[in-house]
Amino acid sequence: MCWASEVVKMAGTKDKKPEKKPKTGTPSNTSVCVVCHEEKTGHVVRDDLLIRSIRAVKNFLHIAANNRLVVCKGCVEKHRAKRADFEKKLALYGGGGLLIIIIFTLISRTLQGFAVSLLLGLFVAALALFSYHPASEAK
Ligand SMILES: [Zn+2]
Fold this sequence. Notes:
By secondary structure, the protein is mainly alpha-helical. It has one domain (25-131). The protein has helices spanning 3-10, 49-61, 76-108, 111-126, and strands at residues 31-33, 42-44, 68-72. Strands 1-3-2 form a three-stranded mixed β-sheet, with no helix packed on it. The model is unreliable at 7-17 and 19-26 (pLDDT under 50).
């Protein structure tokens, strides 16, 4: 556990870390680096909720490449920085979103106020996804 995910927990948001359970049977021979997008071997990227969702959508649309996602040796440093940046933003926006929900709900004291603040809070939290970067074994 790194400090960023601890902060996420302290902020009271849902911890979006992937489960420890290893995923088996990904049918692919090629592995692609998530940083430089070249076919390389390296540290395996952990499947998380977002990657699984994207893959499910792609499978549904029959455009899934099913490449194995890795971080190649040359990109480990860049990958760590990107992941740390994402975790920081997730904590920031997640915490901010939660704060918005709490404050607006307390101010309005209505169900409508709660609904609006919930949407607003979720929207703010979703901003973190713009800097999304998956976790890997290299971390
Ligand atoms: Zn690379």
